[in-house]
Amino acid sequence: MAKDGLVILESGHPAAETAERIKAEIEKRGMSIFARVDHAAAARTAGMQLRPTEVLMFGSPRAGTPLMQADQTIGIDLPLKLLVWEDEGGEVRISYNDPVWLGGRHGLPDSEGEHLKAMAAGLRAIAAAAAAL
Question: Which of 37, 72, 97, 103 could link 55 by a cystine bridge, Cβ 3.0 to 4.6 Å?
Answer without folding.
Answer: 37
